[in-house]
Structures are given as structure tokens and as C-alpha cells.
Design goal:
Helices cover about 5% and strands about 45% of the residues. The chain has two helices and 29 strands.
């Protein structure tokens, strides 16, 4: 780190390593040649990553260390490292990547336009990830961060850069199945299915559109939470009937999907003060740990919060249930930031995180609180 002696850095690293023996059930580290902004599960044991530099980038499918899944005799498990199982190259950056459930396809966007690239991820007879198609977007130029993507079987992909150009496309035929019509064209922070037919289009100003692809009726719109200043950005995630919105100033608002205008809880996170761009921050509900969210991008760590204990209006900064500081601690640079994180789809406390130095961490944290999640 800048201004820090090598011995001081090594002491900090040693202290953190000793700490991990008590706070992590598992911790695995992998180093990519180039950093990634995407961590997308293709199965419970494999994940896709891809570079985002301006030139040629790798797209890789990595298999998680088999030691993670050895419930007994972990010390006897031979494979303790990530393994590249499929790989390919993209001519441009990969700013967004989604796996199409039930297939061996992933869909990407380069952030330069709203068009999508379609890829086939290897197979029994090939270890190559190859580009097999494309999908035309409704805008020639994407907004900041490019198009957002969501996928639903059978091979339906929702995509768009702004609230006024969201389209549902059938990949097999290229047919447009639905187009979201709004009076605004606000840049999107996320797109997400909440059922087979209903999806959320969340904007960076905090507005959320709820649309049903089975009907031509206008979408419902919930205005963004009141915030201080027009420069505040918002990121959104939904799970079941719960919707969480996190702002660049650290404000968190949780609502019920059936009444987004009413906050179930509203809190302030203790975050470092720095300017965020649309692609910096991630917030996500834990799929197998009720009431917990993970937040990254507001600091050099991934923070886990238990939302069930939050009150409707809570004064003061709330503290995380757990904080993964490994990327910042293990790097000699003082400007490393977390670029992506993802919960494991089935293991309650297992997450993947990636950082700007190319590091990828797989960690299973220990909840040492009395209440617990």
C-alpha cells in the first residue's frame, strides 16, 4: 500500500490470515490475468468470468475447488484450486454476462452499444466458448455501463439500456416477444424476472417499473426513494416479494413488491465516501439465507447485513453482520476495489467476489453472532 513499508504490509496480511482461521469455514483464492466485472453461475460448481479491458478479453468457465464440496476429510481432497474447464475470447469488453437457464449458452453486452452477443459454452466434445449469434438492441448507443440482461427458460432474454427500450427476445428465433413502453428513458441499473412473466426494470434514479409480459397494459412505476442530491445513484435487487434499493450515499430502502411506495425498513450504511459510477456497486439477496443481503462497491470489502433486525426508520449507521476484507488486505495497492460478488445458489454462506487487481475469492463465512441469520 502507498506509504506503507513492506514489513507493515506483511504484518497486516499475517494478522488477517490468523483471523480467517476463526471467521471462515473455507477460503480459496484465484488470480485472473485481467480483472472481471462479471461472476455468473452456470451450475452449482461452475462460474463464468470475463475481462472488461478495451481490447481482446478472455471468457472463462471455472470449476470451483472440489475441496469445497468434500464434507468429510477435506484435508485429503486433492483438488484445492479453481480449474478452467471452458474458455474463449471476446473482441471487446464484457460488461454484463448472463447464463440462460437450462442451456449451455451465455449472453453478453460490451457496454458500447445495446446489442447482445450470444455464446455457446463448450460441451462434451469441446472446451471452447465460441460466439454463435447476436441480438440487436433498440438503441445504437448504450447508456453508462451498457445493457442490463435477465434470462428465463426456455431461452428468453430480457435486455435494454434504458427504461424505454427494454425488450424480451426469444433467442432461438430472434423474435421480439415484448417491448416495455414508458414515457421516460432513464438508464437502467438492473433487469430482473420475479416470475415467468413479471419482471422489474430498476433505474439508476431509484425508479422501479413492474411489467407483465402477458399483457399490453402499461407497467406500474414506483418512484425512487427521496434522496439528497440529483447525483445519487441507486441499485436494486428482488427476491420473492422483497425489494432492496441501495444508494451511492449508503442509504438502504427495503420494500414489499406489492407496495413499493411504502418502506418496510430504511437504514444508513457506514460507507466510505467516494464517487460511484453505475457499474461499481452490487447488492444482492442471499438465495439460501433468509433476510440477508450482500453489498459491494461502496468500499474495498463485501459486507453482509441481516435486514430482519432493521426497524422502519433506524437512526445511525448500521454495522455489517460480516465483512470480507480479503481483496484489500491481500493487495499491496491501496486502490483495490471489489468489482463483483455473487452468492452461491445453494450454499447459504458461500460467496464469490472479484476485485480490480484480478483476484477472485471463494469464501464460506462463519456467523459468530448470537442472533445469527
Amino acid at each position: 500500500m502507498a506509504g506503507m513499508e513492506e514489513t507493515d504490509f506483511n504484518d497486516i496480511l499475517d494478522d488477517w490470515f490468523i483471523e480467517t482461521l476463526k471467521t471462515y469455514k473455507d477460503l480459496h483464492v484465484y488470480q485472473l490475468d485481467h480483472p472481471t466485472q462479471v461472476l455468473e453461475w452456470t451450475s452449482g460448481r461452475t462460474v463464468c468470468v470475463a475481462g472488461y479491458s478495451s481490447s481482446k478479453n478472455e471468457i472463462l468457465e471455472l470449476r470451483l475447488p472440489l475441496k469445497l464440496f468434500a464434507d468429510e476429510n477435506k484435508g485429503l481432497c486433492a483438488e484445492r484450486d479453481f480449474k478452467v474447464v471452458h474458455g474463449g475470447f471476446s473482441e471487446g469488453p464484457v460488461r454484463c454476462l448472463r447464463h440462460v437457464p437450462g442451456t449451455r449458452c451465455v449472453v453478453t453486452n460490451d457496454g458500447r452499444s445495446s446489442d447482445l452477443q450470444v455464446w455457446t459454452v463448450g460441451g462434451d466434445d469441446s472446451d471452447v466458448i465460441r460466439r454463435t449469434g447476436s441480438v440487436k438492441g433498440r438503441r445504437s448507443v448504450a447508456s453508462d455501463g451498457g445493457s442490463r440482461i435477465a434470462a428465463r427458460p426456455p431461452s428468453r432474454v430480457l435486455h435494454g439500456a434504458r427504461s424505454g427500450d427494454v425488450t424480451l427476445t426469444q433467442l432461438a428465433s430472434g423474435q421480439s416477444l415484448y417491448a416495455l413502453e414508458t414515457d421516460s428513458a432513464d438508464p437502467l441499473s438492473s433487469l430482473q424476472f420475479v416470475s415467468d412473466a413479471v419482471f422489474l426494470a430498476a433505474c439508476r434514479n431509484g425508479d422501479v417499473y413492474i411489467a407483465d409480459t402477458r399483457t399490453p397494459a402499461a407497467p406500474q412505476v414506483s418512484p425512487g426513494p427521496a434522496s439528497r442530491g440529483d447525483s445519487v445513484l441507486w441499485w436494486t435487487d428482488a427476491l420473492g416479494d422483497r425489494v432492496v434499493r441501495v444508494s451511492s450515499s449508503g442509504q438502504v430502502v427495503i420494500s414489499d413488491l406489492r407496495d413499493l411506495g411504502e418502506a418496510v425498513s430504511r437504514v444508513q450504511l457506514d460507507v466510505q465516501s467516494h464517487r460511484c459510477s453505475l457499474g461499481d456497486v452490487r447488492v444482492s439477496w442471499a438465495p439460501a439465507l433468509d433476510g440477508c443481503i450482500a453489498v459491494s462497491g461502496l468500499s474495498g470489502a463485501v459486507q453482509i447485513y441481516e435486514t430482519s433486525v432493521w426497524r422502519t426508520e433506524q437512526r445511525g449507521d448500521v454495522q455489517p453482520l460480516f465483512e470480507h476484507r480479503g481483496h484489500a488486505v491481500s493487495s499491496p495497492s491501496d486502490d483495490v476495489f471489489v468489482s463483483a460478488h455473487a452468492w452461491h445458489p445453494e450454499r447459504p454462506r458461500t460467496l464469490l467476489s472479484a476485485a480490480s487487481d484480478g483476484s477472485v475469492h471463494l469464501w464460506d463465512w462463519v456467523d459468530q453472532s448470537a442472533a445469527g441469520c
